[in-house]
Amino acid sequence: MKLPGQDAIARQADEHLVTHKVKLPRKLVEHPFRQVAKRLSIALVVLVVTAVIVYADHDGYTDNSDGSVDLLDSFYYATVTLSTTGYGDITPVSDAARLTNIFVITPLRVLFLIILVGTTLEALTERTREEWRLNRWRSALRDHTVVVGFGTKGRSAIQTVCATGLRKDQVVVVDPSGKAIEAATAHGYAGVIGDATRSDVLNRAEVFRAKQIIIATQRDDTAVLVTLTARQLNRVAKIVVAVREEENAPLLKQSGADAVITSASAAGRLLGLSVLSPAAGMVMEDLISQGSGLDLIERPVIKAEVGKNPREMDDLVVSVLRGHRVLGYDDPAVGGLELTDRLITIVRATPATHVTPDARPLPRD
C-alpha cells in the first residue's frame, strides 16, 4: 500500500536521474586554457628534442631535394614524423614551403589532434579517475552519517553534527533534486541523487554501514517510508526524523525511528516562550545552536566523578542517562553517579568542545 504523494515523489526522482547517482566533492582543477597551453608546451619540447636528435645524426639521413639535411630539414622531419603525416607524392622542397609546414600546417594538425584525441583521452581518464575515487570512497566509508533531504532542516542538522567534530567526508546527502546535491557537494559532502524511499538509492549511500541517519524530508508520509526502508537496511543505526505534524510522531516511532522531532510544534513552543520571556527564548535558541555561546552536550562520567551527586559537579548537569532511562538532575533515583552513566550538561562553547556521540540506540516507546 502506497501513502499519498509517493507516486509524485517517484516521478520527481525519475526526472533527476543521471548516469552517476553518487557525486563526490570535486577538487579544484586548472583553467582549460592553461591545460591546453601546458599540453602545447610539452609538444613543443618534444618537437625540439626530436629535431636535435635528428640533426646530431644528420649524416644518416638524406633529402630527396638536395641530398643533405640541415637544421631546418631536421625540424621539418621532426614535425612530419611526430604528427604522423608520413611521406606522400607531394613533399615541400623549398624553404618557404617547409616553413609554412612547420609554423602553419603542423600547429593546425596538432590542434586537431588535441581536440580529437586529447578530448577523448581526457574523457576516458576522467571517467576512470571518477570510478577510482568512487570505489575508494565506498571501501573507506564506515560509521558515517546519512542525511535524507538537503533543505533548511537537513542543512541545519549537518551544520550541527559537523560542529561537534564530524568530518565532512563522513556525511552523505540523499536528495531527489540534482540542484540540492550540487549544493551539497559544493559544501564538501558526498551526494546521492534519488528517491530515498527506494532501497537501491539508500544502498548507494551505504546506509547499511551508517552509524546515524537523519531524515529531514518535506513531507511526513515520505519520512515514514524512508524510515521503514532505512530501518530494514540497517537495524542498529540511530535514526532521527523530523516531521511537521505531531500526530505522525507515534507512526514514525513504530516505523523504527529512535527519535522524532516535530518541527512545527518545536518552532511554535519556541515562539510562545519568546513571547512570555524574550530572554528565555534567546537562551533556548543559543542552546540549540551548536558551536557558539552555550552548548548542550552529552559526555561520559569519568572516574573522579563516580559517587558524586549531579549538583556537586563543576559542570551544569541537566540530566543523567542511566541504562535506557533519562533521569533529571534532581531525581532521587540518581543518587551517586556511576561509571556507566552519561551526562547531559550545559557548557560554554569553545573550539575544543565536542559532543561524544552515544553509540547505543535511544529507548523506544
Written description of the protein model:
The chain is α/β, with parallel strands linked by helices. It has 11 helices and 11 strands. The strands form 2 sheets. It has a 7-stranded mixed sheet, sandwiched between helices. The radius of gyration is 33 Å and the shape is elongated.
Q: Residue share in helices?
A: 40-55%
Spatial order of strands in the largest sheet: 1-4-3-2-5-6-7
Structural class per helix/strand content? Answer: alpha/beta
- Overall mean pLDDT stands at 77
- Provide the low-confidence segments as ranges: 8-20, 354-365
- The count of helical stretches stands at 11
- Give the biggest sheet: 7 strands, mixed
What is the rounded Rg? 33 Å
The arrangement of helices and strands along the chain is HEHHHEHEHEHEHEHEHHEEEE
Q: How would you describe the shape?
A: elongated
Ends distance: 25 Å
Number of strands: 11
Give the amount of beta strand, in percent.
Answer: 5-15%
Key features of this structure:
single chain, 11 strands, 15% strand, alpha/beta
Gist?
This protein is α/β, with parallel strands linked by helices.
Secondary-structure topology with pairs:
Layout: H1 6-15, E1 22-23, H2 32-56, H3 71-82, H4 95-140, E2 145-148, H5 152-163, E3 171-175, H6 178-186, E4 190-193, H7 199-204, E5 212-215, H8 220-233, E6 238-243, H9 249-255, E7 259-262, H10 263-276, H11 278-287, E8 294-300, E9 316-322, E10 325-328, E11 342-348
Parallel strand pairs: 2-3, 2-5, 3-4, 5-6, 6-7
Antiparallel strand pairs: 1-4, 8-11, 9-10, 9-11
Helix pairs in contact: 2-3, 3-4, 10-11
